[in-house]
Amino acid sequence: DDVSAPVQLKLAERLVEKAVTDGQLTSTEELRVYLDVLDIQDKHEQMTEVMADNGQLAAMISNDPDLVTQRINLFIKIGAYNKAIMAAIAALESRDNWADYKLYIEAVVTLVGQAADAEAKHSLVAGISSNFEKWAGVRGKARGAKLAQVALATRMHEAGHGDIVGSPEALIWDYLTEFQQKAICYSDIMQFIVARREPSVLEYHQTQLEQRLPAARDSATNSDDAAQAWVNLEKIRYLLQALMGETDPKAWMAGIEPLLKFGLGSSQARKKQPSCSDMAFIASQRIIQAAFLAYSAADQREQLHSALFKALCVLESGIQLNDNSFLLKLYAIRVYLYLSCYERAQTIYDTLRIKHVQLDTLGHLIIGHGMALGCFALDMELCYNGVTFYDRFQSKMPRDIEAVYQQGTYSNVQDFLEFQSNIVHSVQRECTHRYALRGEGYEYGNAKETLARWEEADVSSIEHSEQTLSALHDNRDVSVMGLLTPKDMAQWDLELLTQSTPIPGHDFIRAFSLVPQVMHYLVCADIESLQEKLSELTLVVDNTNDTLSRQDVLFVRGIIDVGSLYIQASDPQNEIDDQLSRLLSVIRTNLPSNELDPSLFSLSSDGIRNLSAAAELFTYMLALKHALSAQRLPAANAVGLALSQLRKEALKSVNTLRGWVDKNTRALVEEQWLAENDDDIFADVKRFVVGGQKQTTSMVTKACTTSWLRSVKNLLSQWEKCSS
Fold first, then answer.
1. Confidence band of 596 (pLDDT split at 50, 70, 90)
2. What band does 1 get if pLDDT is binned at 50, 70 and 90?
3. Quick check: 465 and 448 in contact, CB under 8 A?
């Protein structure tokens, strides 16, 4: 975007051209820089001359696979499809590269579309098919060539030339027959099954599956290869049910018992055979999927939690057998958080040893959930780890760039700078910083400390405009859950279904950038700035469209009320009773009831989250009271008395809840979540986890009850510390 860029690019081009002429361009890294300079200027014809077969750099290019692929892609970019085909054939004769296969297919399909007669079309297809058949017989190339045949047929159908190549579906099952014993087989073939979703096509797949599945299941114990073949067919069964729109939970639970027995109860499972972990993973996905289909209504959420608890028992059993299973742990974290069990989720997260750049891509799995569930101290530690990573990353950027040049990997500079920019302007970075600020606001302090914290807050550095928000880059891996279905199927997207709260984004960043600003201007008695920020915050929360959790909305609206109450109280002539009562009522409503007994469902759904939001809002109300007192405003006394009474009520109700959780939850889990009932959808799972996995089931029960108790104890401690 720099106005001097054209001049600099032209200068760089001339310098490299001179180096080529003088024979001083001797490395592929230098060549890549030259090609990048030409590409940025759209000098594609000149690039083809540089990369010509008979050019002085030909030997250098032919020995670098990436440059070979770039050359094929360049021919396609300039419309030289025949040259692209010849270059792809030459490349694939000597090596097996999927990117080259795809470019070869794209060039042929394009020429087929341009061909004037049927004979020319058939000739092009015959040529590429013959090559694929030839390479399929070469050792080390069979899998790539066979998959390329599937890709060619699928792409031809997409382009409207299906009559020339025949059915991709038959080729898919030919591929499966030959490579079903490989763990990567399902990943290879899934995209091609998903590409054609016509009912007749799906029925064909279903017929082929039903013919193969029983034999694969019966022979699974014969060898590792046979077990992996069954796993791949089970993954396809799962995918086909989703693609065919299956909504009957009983259909999803059909055949679950053999999966559980093989994945968790077989001798292969005890030997930590990878296919057993995969089978346990598939079984847990089926349970979760069936649970959300069976209990989607609001009045069925308690049954949903019971089913998810059983899924947790399966996941934990798999983890016990294979502690290295990343996917089992990710799903366990997700389900524990859905059931408001932060402590166990955080313990599992720690075993993943997520660090460095993974904090940016995977940190969203856990960061922020502790604050929502009363475990703000543990969450703050994770936030500070994240903040430290981002600060160190930014400080070492100049040294990293210098190292790139010293190592001579010049072509990586542009990618490296882009990577650096993505981290520095990361959505997760902003979210982590906001959570850290939020946690600091949650920390107890006396009046002097509280006022000093808000008065000295550097609020200018956290301001965001639409322009700065739009410049943020989302590096988070939101497809980390290992789905067996495509992302465009929301009803079968377990990544989406198992989210306990929305993944924070721009609205979260904007809202929790404004909250510290509101408190800063309140403490500093800057009414004009305070009113401006309250208006901005109101606009954000009124237009969230479910991008904030219910508790975050409750809290943010509470902060708006706190700021409005301060403005009202800043004039001694104004009455504040009604406004104060409304704000206190919001907190009381989210405290445990002293009149109704708690329930397992209320605790595992919104109970702890609501209590945490109430405690957080109370902490900010104390800051309001301290500000009113420091500014000698008459309303300080009324606010202080009201908060003192509210604190007494909260201590009583939270202490009662603590006793109830400690005394009753373990027995209630066994009675309600593991009990026999009229609904037999999950009967097989219940029998398996209670009968064959008693130790793990007991551990999961303890993990849930201990997590709930820890959250409630933390919140009780918070209320005890917060004194007006």
1. low
2. low
3. no
Query: Which 8-state DSSP code applies to residue 426?
Result: B
Measured between alpha carbons, how far is 435 from 509 in angstroms, rounded to an integer?
9
Which own/partner contact pairs does 387-395 have at CB distance under 8 Å and 24+ positions apart? Answer: 387/432, 387/433, 387/436, 389/355, 389/356, 389/359, 389/360, 390/360, 390/423, 390/424, 390/426, 390/429, 390/432, 390/433, 393/420, 393/423, 393/424, 394/424
Find where tokens 């720099």 sit.
2
What is the DSSP-derived secondary structure letter of residue 616? H
Please name the residue that has the structure tokens 């089931």. Answer: 697
Measured CA to CA, the distance from residue 101 to residue 85 in angstroms comes to: 10
Helix or strand holding residue 344 (H, E) = helix 342-351
Using DSSP's 3-state secondary structure scheme, residue 473 falls into: strand
The residue that leads in pLDDT, 543 or 33, is: 543
DSSP secondary structure letter of residue 598: -
One-letter amino acid at 95 equals R
3-state SS, one letter per residue, for 534-555: HHHHHHHHHCCCCCCCHHHHHH
CA dihedral 20, 24, 30, 31 (to 10 degrees): 30
For 518, the enclosing helix (H) or strand (E) is helix 506-523
Distance between CA 523 and CA 622 in Å, rounded? 12
**DSSP characters over 151-212:** HHHHHHHHTT-HHHH--HHHHHHHHHHHHTTSTTHHHHHHHHHHH---HHHHHHHHHHHHHH
Average pLDDT, the chain: 91
* HSE toward the beta carbon, residue 434, CA cutoff 13 A: 25
Task: Name the one residue in this structure whose structure tokens are 């403005």.
Answer: 567
pLDDT digits (tens, 9 = 90+) for 228-280: 999 999 999 999 999 999 999 999 999 999 999 999 999 999 888 899 999 99
> Concatenated DSSP letters for 98-118?
HHHHHHHHHHHHHHHHH-SSH
- 443 residue type, one letter: E
State yes or no: pLDDT of 4 exceeds 80. Answer: no
Q: Which amino acid would we find at residue 375? A: C
Count Cα neighbours of 636 within 13 Å in the Cβ-side half-sphere: 13
Nearest alpha-carbon partner for 552 in 653, 654, 438, 657: 438
Question: Is 70 exceeded by the pLDDT of residue 601?
Answer: yes
Contact indicator for 293, 281 with CB cutoff of 8 Å = no
Measured distance CA(600)–CA(193) in Å, rounded: 42
Mean pLDDT value of segment 198-208: 97
pLDDT, one tens digit per residue, over 270-306 is 888 899 999 999 999 999 999 999 998 888 899 999 9
Tokens of 531: 């009113």
Token output for 270: 């005890």
Contact 365, 371 (CB under 8 A): no
599 CB-contact burial (10 Å; exposed 0-12 / middle 13-18 / buried 19+): middle
What number is the average pLDDT over the span 47-72?
81
216 pLDDT band, cuts 50/70/90, is very high
CA 534/CA 518 separation, integer angstroms: 7
φ, ψ at 674 (rounded to 5°): -120, 10
User: H or E segment at 7?
Assistant: helix 5-21
Contact 141, 91 (CB under 8 A): no
Identify whether the C-beta of residue 646 lies closer than 8 Å to the C-beta of residue 584: yes
